[in-house]
């Protein structure tokens, strides 16, 4: 488990390390390279203060909280819930989808 968390952290870091050097064409035009693709969707917290849980349901323990306007990386989903990752806390947790916006659960 610890190895997978370290591996995911390294992959997330590398995904954010895109090229920032511009390319100069021979015709004098300067182009910026395409930004790296983020493999994760992001959601915006819409609830004032929202609990993060160990699993996808209110029966699971609270492991933290987030606030309105926070942006979260979605790494998985269950009916009505998103699994999110907070890199600054090295925390995987679940948030109720109804208190977020910006991603769509599959039907």
Structural features, described:
The chain is mainly β and 107 residues long. It has a single domain (2-101), classed as SH3 Domains (SH3 type barrels, Roll). 13% of the residues lie in helices and 39% in strands. It has one helix at residues 2-15; strands at 23-24, 30-31, 41-45, 49-53, 62-67, 71-78, 81-86, 91-96, 100-101. The protein has a 5-stranded antiparallel beta sheet with strand order 8-7-6-3-9, with no helix packed on it. The protein has a two-stranded antiparallel sheet with strand order 1-2. A hairpin with an 8-residue loop joins strand 4 (49-53) and strand 5 (62-67). The two termini are 30 Å apart. Residues 17-26 and 29-36 have low confidence and may be disordered.
Report Rg.
17 Å
- What is the level-2 CATH architecture name? Roll
In total, the number of strands is: 9
Q: H/E series, N to C?
A: HEEEEEEEEE
- Mean pLDDT equals 76
CATH topology: SH3 type barrels
Characterize the biggest β-sheet: 5 strands, antiparallel
Taking the alpha carbons of the first and last residues, their distance comes to: 30 Å
Strand order of the largest sheet: 8-7-6-3-9
CATH class: Mainly Beta
């Amino acid at each position: 488990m610890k190895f997978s968390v370290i591996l995911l952290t390294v992959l997330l870091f590398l995904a954010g390390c895109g090229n920032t050097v511009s390319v100069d064409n021979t015709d004098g035009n300067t182009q910026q390279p395409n930004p790296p693709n983020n493999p994760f969707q992001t959601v915006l917290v819409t609830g004032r203060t929202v609990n993060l849980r160990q699993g996808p349901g209110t029966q699971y323990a609270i492991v933290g909280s987030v606030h309105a306007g926070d942006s979260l990386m979605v790494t998985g989903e269950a009916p009505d819930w998103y699994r999110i990752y907070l890199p600054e806390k090295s925390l995987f947790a679940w948030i109720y989808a109804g208190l977020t916006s910006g991603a769509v659960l599959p039907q």
